[in-house]
Amino acid sequence: MGEAAPADERERLLRALEHGAAAACGLAGWMNTHPELSLQEHETQARYVRYLEEHGFAVAVGTAGLATAFVAEWGAPGAPVCAALLAEMDALPDIGHACGHSLSGPASLLAATALAAVVPPAALRLRVVGCPAEELGIGKRRLVAAGAFDGCDAALMAHASDMRRAHRLFLGNRKFEFVFHGRAAHAAAYPEQGINALDGVIATFVAVGLLRQQLADGVRLHGIVSEGGTAPNVIPERASARFWVRALDPAVLDDAASRLVQCAQGAAGATGTRLEVREDESSSPPLRPNRALADLYRRQLEALGLEETADAPDARIGSSDITHVSHVAPTIHPNFPIGRDLQLHTRAFAEAARTPAGESGMLEAARALALTVLALARDPAARRAVADAAR
């Protein structure tokens, strides 16, 4: 497709990646042993910023009102392509970097700094976006709203997994809390005086259970009781439930969400309770895929001699706030393997991130990301394909 990057430039980029590998692995190792929770990634941010500044990036912190977010810039404003590399930071409570952000973040940093060492500034503009609070689902949403990805021709990051796939989807996720208000009463002496808020919650779960048989294929609907009363002998005056509904198709997602809300409304009417419906800020749309950008990444895997696993783009997927980015810039979020038969958000996954296989996966991601950006910088036809796929 069109012009390719000169072979010697590719080789110099691979050498720059190799040269920076030790520092990136050291950063990943530090993160694995010092996990920081969402919106508390202060030392991680400081190390990311120092790493980038040492390689000539100009960094602004506190983007979008998030203390641990940042945007790092390198390259000429008039360059033919602006590529954003996303660097996540946060860990999970108790189980640390069980989502692999200790690998995906340093992979983006290594890719960016290697590109800056090889590609002339006039040919490429790089933006590294420090993305906090992925586990809360709010970081990238706020960064998008603040314009952190404005003007970007592509946004890229890679995620640790037990799979290797260039094209990976994310479910949209609408998150609701249903709060039912009733009237307290002594459950034995004056039961007729009470209005049981917990009945509203229970009736909602019953209605949702009946709804599931009419939902479209691929819809995921799950909930918990988040508040159910204070004592068995007191009729609850307040009770609540939290539900998440997910789907790949936006129209299917919105329809399922509407029907979920109707279940709660019907439960309130049936139990005489008053209902509050709250939708969480961390709701996210489905990923808007860009097959051309994913194919470009796939070609870099092939050039590196790496074969994708047989997993489909929609196999074993969840949700992520990166989907907000995909609606303002062509975006990919491929997987790189760090072991076999691993499940995200488990202690086993966190342990795998600490192993040599974890480091190897991180370096694979850095190479493939960097080569993809280089191809965008050097191949106008590739840029046109990505732009066309975004229309």
Determine Rg (CA atoms, Å): 24 Å
Amount of beta strand: 15-25%
Number of helices: 11
What is the topology, as strand order, of the major beta sheet? 1-2-4-3-5-11
Cα shape: elongated
Key traits:
391 residues, Aminopeptidase, Alpha-Beta Plaits, six-stranded mixed β-sheet, four-stranded antiparallel β-sheet, 12 strands, 18% strand
Task: Describe it.
The chain is α/β, with parallel strands linked by helices. It folds into 2 domains: 7-170 and 285-389, Aminopeptidase, CATH 3.40.630; 173-279, 2-Layer Sandwich (Alpha-Beta Plaits), CATH 3.30.70. It is 41% helix and 18% strand. It has 11 helices and 12 strands. The chain has helices at residues 7-33, 42-53, 101-118, 139-145, 197-211, 250-271, 291-303, 322-326, 347-353, 356-378, 380-389, and strands at residues 58-61, 70-75, 82-88, 125-131, 154-156, 159-161, 172-181, 220-227, 238-247, 274-279, 331-332, 335-337. It has a 6-stranded mixed β-sheet, with helices on both faces. β1 (58-61) and β2 (70-75) form a beta hairpin. α7 (291-303) packs across α11 (380-389). The longest helix has 27 residues, at 7-33. It is elongated. The mean pLDDT is 97.
